[in-house]
């Protein structure tokens, strides 16, 4: 807040000089505060978006890893079954 003080002296021919002081206060608008709040809200929304995007990527990665593990386990079972079949044929 900026204060400005003005002293005004007035005189007339009939009377002595009158003096009075006027204090004028200048206040800035609330625009800077509103802009600050808007920027803060945008930062929060952006952080939330990127956090969720990161979480979604982690979920996708975990799902792909799990599926690949299952495929690998299934392939191992098929390989074991083929080995047993081959062993049983050669033992007869």
Written account of the structure:
With 92 residues, the protein is an alpha+beta fold. It has a domain at 29-73. The protein has 1 helix and 2 strands, in the order ββα. It has one helix spanning 31-91, and strands spanning 2-10, 18-26. The chain has a two-stranded antiparallel ribbon with strand order 1-2. Strand 1 and strand 2 (18-26) form a beta hairpin. The longest helix is centred in the middle third of the chain and has 61 residues, at 31-91.
Rg (C-alpha, Å)? 42 Å
Average pLDDT, all residues:
79
Overall geometric form: rod-shaped
Q: Poorly predicted ranges (pLDDT <50, ≥5 residues)?
A: none
The spatial strand order of the largest sheet comes to 1-2
Total of helices: 1
Q: In this structure, how is the largest beta sheet organized?
A: 2 strands, antiparallel
> Number of DSSP strands?
2
- SSE string, helices as H and strands as E: EEH
Helix proportion range: 55-70%
Strand content: 15-25%
SS-derived structural category: alpha+beta
- Termini Cα gap: 102 Å
């Amino acid at each position: 807040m900026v204060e400005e003080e003005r002293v005004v002296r007035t005189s007339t021919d009939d009377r002595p000089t009158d003096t009075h002081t006027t204090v004028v206060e200048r206040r800035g608008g609330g625009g800077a505060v509103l802009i600050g709040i808007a920027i803060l809200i945008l930062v929060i929304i952006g952080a939330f978006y990127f956090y969720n995007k990161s979480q979604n990527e982690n979920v996708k990665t975990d799902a792909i890893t799990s599926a690949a593990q299952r495929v690998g386990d299934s392939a191992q079972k098929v390989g074991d079954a083929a080995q047993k079949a081959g062993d049983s044929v050669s033992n007869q």
